[in-house]
Every structure is written in structure tokens, then in C-alpha cells.
Amino acid sequence: MVNEITVKIKKKSAQSYIKGYPLLTKEALVTFPDMEEGVILRLVDESGRFLAKGYHGNQNKGIGWILTYDEKQALDQAFFATLFEEAFAKRQVFFNDDATTAFRIFNGEGDGLGGLTIDYYDGFLVLQWYSHGIYQWKSMILAAIKTAITTRGIYEKRRFDAKGQYLESDDFLASDTAPEPLIIKENGINYAVYLNDGAMTGIFLDQRDVRKTICDTYAAGRTVLNTFSYTGAFSVAAAFGGAAHTTNVDVANRSIPKTREQFTVNELDPAAHTIMAEDVFQYFKYANRKELAFDMVILDPPSFARTKKTTFSVAKDYGKLLEESIAITNPNGIIVASTNYAGYGMDKFKQVVQEAFRNQGREYRIVEQFTLPADFATRSSFKEGDYLKVLFLEVK
């Protein structure tokens, strides 16, 4: 289907690939030949000995992914079908859980194919392609998926424009279209999702365990501030757990009807909760003026965001965001501090937390810690793949 090019790997990089590092980088190559994305790469060391086979696809800091260490392995439909069948089998416990009908069934390099993820929404699949290179394999991959699983319908999200962003398009691919909204369940709670309404569906599936913990352990009787609230999923979980009140703050105007909808599909009255479109940092100023304080503050900001008044990046501003949150958290309250910023490891994230509390003159205790849930498979040789970091912080 595609051409194969042999590329030499520098001696200092070869060992990391032998040990299972899956991301190909330009710096690891002796020379970077002119080639189209999607081409098969046959990796050899500087002595010409075979190392692995992969494909070329520009994504974030890499230029492709390793697929196999077997020189004789054909990269054909049967190869991909086996990958999918093995991955779907590992999620059997999720398929058998009637209380949860949305989860990840294929997680890129964690399941052996970097550049592609597949999420399951009550029988519908959403494929996310992260490079033009992997997208060149689309027809073969789709055929392999269809042999591995029966679906109600398939959608795609293409995330590989010049800036690595989502490409606007009609995302429907095959079989039947999903209802709008499609009501999925997560730990018995309903969530309204839209599979063909832009880059995101209405819920971040990697936070499932965090929502469950909020609901089961920390929400009862508490007042909750949900910042960067998106569609209010954390707040719905808190309300189910007996929260006294939730306040939802997100700069996007469409977050208001989306959040109301999430309460409504659970027969909860959205009017009993505060839902507003406002810059989070402006809201902190308002809360300080009004001397507002909360028993739980949820912080799950995007890695980067720009509004008319502020620019936010996790790398530079998470500590400030956390300090603002500490200032309006009641004694013995809980801050749920979360980030998916790949530039932080958990140790670095804990340092940011420690510094923020020190600057505020407050003490804290880490009472829960989360990384990615079980369906978001990762590999020990690729630490960057385990991107989610969540700390439940009890404020003294």
C-alpha cells in the first residue's frame, strides 16, 4: 500500500528504541530524508542491523511511531485487526458494565499504534487521528476495525492541521448517525454527548475515576466551585453525590445551555445551581470582593487559553491559578487540582502545588492521586503517554 524507506538511527538513540521507546524523533535519525507522511520506515542502527518498523507521521515532538520489532511482520489489515482485537478484549470488563457505556477502547501507542485513539460511546466509535501520516492508512484501518468490532456508527476527529489542531469537517464516517444528543452512562450517571459537533463531544472520558471519587467520597453537603467547567460534568457528579450547591464558571457562552442540559438529562434542576459564562480569573476577583468561599474547588484548565482579558498557560500560570483557589477554599475544604499538560510529570506538578500553598501561607494534605484510568492504556517505556495528573488536596 505504501512505500518503505530505510533510515539509520544514531548510536545513542538506538538503545532507547531497543528498550521499547515508541516515538520516532528527527534528532534520532542520522539523516532525515525527504519523504511523504504515511511511508513505512525500516529502522536500522549505524551498522545496518534491523531495529524496528514504523511509519512517518508528524505529531507534536515526533516524526512517527514504531509499530513492530519483527522484520518479517507485514503491516497489513491483518496486523491492525490483531491490534484492535487484543485492545478490545482488554476492555471486556467495560463492555460488560451496564452502568458505564462510554470509554476508550484503543489508546494510541499504549495499544501499539501511536497516532490513533478510539473511543466507544454506547455502540458508536469516535476515531481521533493525530497526524496526516496515520490518516494515509485510514481505509485499511477502518476495514480492520470493522472485522474486530460491531458498531452502530463511526465518527472521526482529524487533529493534524498546521498547528496540530482539529480540522473542521463533517465527522460522520460509516453506518448509522448517532442521536443528538446521545445519552451515555458513566457510573450510573447520564451525560449528553454530541459526536458531530466540533472537536470535543461534551465529556472528557479520562476523568471518569475522578468524577466517581468526587461523587462517592467528597461531594456530600459541600458547596462546589467548578472552574473551566465546560459542560459541567464534574458538577453533575457532585450533585449526584449530594453536593449542597454547585457554581459553574466557563468563559464560553455555550457552556451555559450545555451545562443545563447535563443536569436536565439526570432529572436534576439546573436552576438550583449557578451556571455562568465568565473568565475564571475575573470570577476569582468577584469571589474575593464578595467574600465567597467554597468547600470544594475543581481546577481542570486547558493547557493554553486566551480570552479578551487574560492569557493562560499551565506551564506559567497553574501556580497562580491554584493560589487564587486556595484563597477562596474553606478550612478542611478540598481542591481537585488537575492537568493534562504533558510538560509536567507528577513530581513537577506536586512542586507547583507545594509552592502555591507556601505562597498562601496555608497547609495541605494530598488525600487522593490519579493518573489515567485503566482503559487509557499506557506503556512504561513512554512516560509522556501517561499525561493526566490529578491531586485531591485537603486545605488545612
From TrEMBL:
Which regions span the lipid bilayer? Answer: none
Q: Does the keyword Glycoprotein apply?
A: no
Q: Which Gene3D superfamilies match?
A: PUA domain, RNA methyltransferase domain (HRMD) like, Vaccinia Virus protein VP39
Could you state a single Gene Ontology molecular function term? methyltransferase activity
Q: Describe the location of the S-adenosylmethionine-dependent methyltransferase domain by residue ranges.
A: 180-376
For biological process, the GO terms are: methylation
Signal peptide (residue range): none
- UniProt entry tagged with the keyword Heme: no
Q: Which keywords appear in this protein's UniProt record, sorted alphabetically?
A: Methyltransferase, S-adenosyl-L-methionine, Transferase
Matching InterPro entries, A to Z?
Answer: PUA-like_sf, PUA_sf, RlmI-like_PUA, SAM-dep_methyl-trfase, SAM-dependent_MTases_sf
Q: Which domain of life is it from?
A: Bacteria
The record places domain RlmI-like PUA at: 7-68
Q: Which PANTHER family match?
A: RIBOSOMAL RNA LARGE SUBUNIT METHYLTRANSFERASE YWBD-RELATED (PTHR43042:SF3), SAM-DEPENDENT METHYLTRANSFERASE (PTHR43042)
Specify the protein name. Answer: 50S rRNA methyltransferase
Species for this entry: Listeria newyorkensis
Give the lineage. Answer: Bacteria, Bacillati, Bacillota, Bacilli, Bacillales
